[in-house]
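$ ./design --mode recover --in tokens.txt
reading tokens...
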């Protein structure tokens, strides 16, 4: 079972971004939790081609997802979605492990 769930909309957006940059075959989306932000922890998303010994790699549709062991503790059960509406546009993270979040939604406490 995957650590996080990637919605079909998010899968399509990730694939589109990787394909645009010619990296679909070589890179995956790395989802990471780092210290910082107003609530103590924040999410970091980026494209990476390196998979280390402490990384978990899985596929979501046509894209690879990479989550390191340390981040996996905070991300278990998380859903990554992509929204594009008049009010907001971007990746949206629904994390059941977040005990508190800041007003902007960029950081959380666990």
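writing sequence...
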């Amino acid at each position: 079972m995957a650590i996080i769930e990637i919605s079909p909309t998010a899968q399509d957006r990730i694939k589109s971004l990787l394909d645009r940059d010619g990296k679909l075959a070589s890179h995956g989306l790395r989802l990471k939790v780092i210290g910082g932000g107003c609530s103590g922890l924040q999410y970091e998303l980026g494209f990476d081609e390196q998979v280390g010994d402490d990384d978990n790699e899985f596929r979501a549709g046509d894209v690879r997802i990479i989550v390191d062991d340390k981040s996996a503790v905070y991300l278990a059960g998380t859903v990554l979605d992509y929204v594009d509406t008049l009010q907001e546009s971007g990746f949206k993270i629904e994390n059941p492990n977040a005990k508190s979040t800041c007003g902007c939604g960029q950081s959380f406490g666990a």
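exit 0
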